[in-house]
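Researcher: Next entry in the queue.
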Amino acid sequence: MEANPSAAPPPNAFVLSTALGACSALRDLGRGERIHSRIQQRRSDLGGNMVVLETALLRMYASCGCVVQAEEIFQAMGERDVIAWNAMISAYAHTGHHTRAFGIFRIMLLEAAVTPSAATISAILAACLDLGSGRRIHCLAASIGVESHPSVAISLLGMYSRCSSSITSARALFLGMERKSLVAWNTMIAACAQRGLAAEAQELFKAMDVEPDGFTFASLLAVCCDLDLGRRLHAGIATARLASRLIVDTALVGMYSRCGSLGDAAAVFEGMEDRDTVAWNAMIAAFAEARDLDRAMECYQRMLDRSTCEPNGVTYATLLAACRDRGDLGHGRRLFRDAQDRGLYPDRFVQSAAVAMLARCGAICEARKLLREAKIRDVEAWNAMISAYAQMGHLREALGIYREMEHDGSSSPDLFTFASALAAAAGLGDLDTGKVIHERMAAERSLKLDVFAANALLTMYSKCGSLGDAKLVFDRIPDKDTVSWNSMISAYARHGRYKDAIATYRAMECCPDEATIVSALAAASALADLDEGAAIHARALELGIATPVVESTLASMHAKCGSLDAAMALFEKNREKDLVSWNAMVAAYAQHGDGSEALALIHRMELEGISPNGVTLSGVLASCSHAGLLERGMFYVGWLSREHGVAVESEHYRFVVELLGRCGRLGEAEAVVRGMPLEPDPALWVTLVAACVLHEEVSRADRAAAGLDPGDAASYVLLANVYSAGI
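Model: Structure for this entry, 727 residues:
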C-alpha cells in the first residue's frame, strides 16, 4: 500500500482499517501515523466510514502506548460506539491511568448511556487495583449476563489474583469454570507463584488438561527453590512443544541461580539461540547474587561487545548493587557514567542503586549530592541514603536525611523508611524522635503495618527504655514471627526482668532460632537457674540449633552459676571458640578467685591466635586483683596495650588502683588516678577511698574525697569510716 500509492486506486475504508489493525498488533507506531495522515487527507471521501476508522486509529494509538493521541481522537469523535469506549478505557487501563479509566467508564454508563459489552467489562477489570472495585464490576458483569463470557471470566480471575491477599476467591472462580483455557490455567498458576505458593502451583500444573506453554513453565520456575524439582521441570521443558524458548530459558537461568547452581545457569544461558536484554540481565544478576562481580562485569562487557541488545535500567541497577556489596567504588562510578551516557539517568532504579553504591563505598557526600540534584527523588533513593548512613553508624545523619525527606515532600515514606529511621532512633536511645516517627507511621493510612515495621517499633521502645510501650506493640502484632518474640525476650532481659524473659520464651508460638536460645540462656544465667538453662539447651539440641554460639552461652551460664568444671567441659567441647567464649571463661575464673586459671587461659588464647580485647584485660586484672598479683597485673596492662593494641579504659585503671591499694601502695594508686590520660570518674575515686579505709590513711582519703559524687551517699559512708578509723 505504501510502496507506490499513485500506481493503484486509493485504499478503501476496509483496507485502511485492516492496516491499522495490523499496526496495532505489531505496535508499529510509525506506519500507523502515516496511515493516519492519509486518512486525514481523504477525510471527505471516507466520511461515511470515519467512525470505524477513528475507532481503529484510537485502538492503534492505544496499543502503541500513545494515550494522549488516543484521547485526542476520542474527544474529536462525533459518534462513539461501544468499541470506541472500550478502546479508550483499555488505553488508560494498560498505560497505568487507572483513575482516568474509571472516569471514562462512568461517563459511558451515566452520561452516554452506552450498554457495556463483555469487552468493556474485561477492559475496566484491568484497571481495578482494589478488591472492592473489582467485586462491584463482577456484580455488574453478572447483572448484564456476561459473567461467564470467556474473556470476562479470565479478566475476573486476573483481578482476584491481583487484588486479593489470598487466592481463595480466584480459586473458587477458577474451579467454577466449565472449560478452563490455557490462559486460565496460566493465570491461576501465576497467582500461586506470585504469592510463593510453590506446592499449590505444582498441583495445578499436574492437574492441567491442556498443553502447557512457555508462560506456564516460566511461572513454575519463578517460584522453584528446589534444585531437584527444577531439574525435573527442565527435563519436561526439553520435550515440550514450545513456540519460543526465550522466556523459559531466561526463567531457567533465574531458577538455577536461585538454587545456587551457577554452573547450570551459565550452561543454559550459553546454550540459548536467542537472547534479549531480559536474558542478559538474568545472567548478570546470577553472577551478582553469587557475589561474583568480576564475572558479572565480564557478562556485561559481552553484552556490549557481542550482542545487539542494549542494557537497561535493570542492568545497571543490578551491577551497581553488586559494586555496593563488594565496596568497589571504581567499577561503580564507571557503570554510573555508562548509564548516564546511554540516557538511563534519571531512571529511578539506577538512581537508587547509584546513591546506595556511593554511600556504602564511603563516598557519602557524593551520594548525598546526587540525591539532592536528582529531578526525581523517589522513596527508594531516600531509603538508600538513610540505610547507608545507619549502616555506617552515622545515626544522627540518618535521622537528618529522614527529616529532609519529610520536608521535601517529593515522595512519601514507606515501611522500610520508617523501620530504618526507627533503628537509628533506637541506636541513639532517642525516645522522643522514636515516638514522633511512630505517630507519623500511624497517620500514613495508606500503609498497613507489617511485622517487619512492628518489630522495628518494638526494638526502638525497648532500647530507648520504654518497656511498657514495647509490650503494647508486641501484644498488637497479629502474626508474630521469631524476630518479634526474640525482640520481646531481649527487651525483658535488657531491663533486668529475667523471669518475664523466660516466661515469654516459654509462650513462643513459633519455632525458636539461635538468637532465641542465646537470649533465653542469658536470662537463665542471670537468674542462676541451671535447671532452666538445661531445659533450654535440651530444646536447642532437639531443634538442631546447638551451635557454637549456643554452646558458648551455655558455658558462660554454668560459669556464672559457679559450676566451673561443667563450664570448662563445655568450653573445651566447643570447636569454634570465639573471643566471647574465651573472655567468658577468663571472667568466670576471675570472679571465683582462681587467678592462675584465668591467666593460663590468656596464654592459651595467645597460642591459638585469638587476639584479646578490653574485656579480656578486665578479666585478667580482676583475676590478678583476687590473687594479689600486682606485678603480673601491671605486666598484662603493658603487654596487652603494647602488643595487641588494647585501649586502657577507665574500668582498667580502676582495677589497677584496686591492685595497688590491696598491696598497700596507696601513693602509687593516687598517682595513677591523678596522672591517667582520661578524666577520672567517681568510681575510680571510690576505689581509692576504699583502699584508704583498708589501710586507715585519713589524709589521703580526705584528698581523694574531692572526686566523689556528691549525690552518692555510699561514697561518704566510706569516708566516714576513714575518719572513725583515724580517730
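Model: The CA atoms of residues 569 and 686 lie 38 Å apart.
Researcher: Noted, moving on.
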